[in-house]
């Protein structure tokens, strides 16, 4: 699972305005089957093992498994994305699972996402079972188009995810090195020096990964280059530790 994603306590329930037109947009409508009862046909285990053949075999035998969620409420599709297996996510999509607002944001299905959030705008601020808003998922896994759709219907660019990591969407974009989404979030009012657990800011993440375009964007929007993590490391320190010597020198230079 991505390092910036952590499970948190159960979030508040979504809006109660769901209608019969598409209950699949809400995760509580997803089936959950005990993995032990599925045996060798457990698609979640196949994803963890990176076993594409086992996943295909399970889905071919029972295509409805493509729409399942695990015991934590995470859909099979997002489970594959969380494990960095977009190829397996594509295999799951081929079985036409129902896509809720979180899945659509994560996989980058802009048309589906737009339909869902324009039917019920409260879904743009909904919380997944693991504590994220759709905007977090679009920023980390999805596309700038999906992030823009969510922002256009009132998604909070400064929403803090549930759980110990306390990430905001800008942290998610920085972790994914997604400069386009970061720019959209900043334009929408995301705090440039937003702090997650450990005292890390988006600039810290950009410096550590050596992402010069993202560093430039954040500095242009007023990021504090002198801010240190809880461990006392500045962006320059993190860049140097990661082997980005030129960037570290630049970040240490006086303004």
Describe the structure.
The protein contains 15 helices and no strands. With 255 residues, it is mostly helical. Helix 4 packs antiparallel against helix 5, helix 7 packs parallel to helix 9 and helix 14 runs antiparallel to helix 15.
Label this structure with key terms.
single chain, 255 residues, mainly alpha, 15 helices, globular, disordered N terminus
Question: Secondary-structure map with pairings?
Answer:
Layout: H1 35-38, H2 43-49, H3 52-61, H4 76-82, H5 86-93, H6 101-107, H7 110-119, H8 134-140, H9 144-152, H10 169-175, H11 179-187, H12 202-209, H13 212-220, H14 235-241, H15 245-252
Helix pairs in contact: 2-3, 4-5, 6-8, 7-9, 8-9, 8-10, 9-11, 10-11, 10-12, 12-13, 12-14, 14-15
Taking pLDDT < 50 over at least 5 consecutive residues as the criterion, the unreliable ranges are 1-28
In sequence order, what are the helices and strands, one letter per element?
Answer: HHHHHHHHHHHHHHH
Taken from the alpha-carbon principal axes, the silhouette is: globular
Q: What helical percentage do the residues reach?
A: 40-55%
Strand tally: 0
The share of residues in extended strands comes to: under 5%
How would a textbook summarize the main sheet? none
Radius of gyration: 19 Å
Chain-averaged pLDDT: 87
Span from first to last CA? 38 Å
Structural class, from helix and strand content?
mainly alpha
Separate helix tally: 15
Task: Please outline what is shown here.
The protein is mainly α and 255 residues long. It has helices at residues 35-38, 43-49, 52-61, 76-82, 86-93, 101-107, 110-119, 134-140, 144-152, 169-175, 179-187, 202-209, 212-220, 235-241, 245-252. The chain has 15 helices and no strands.
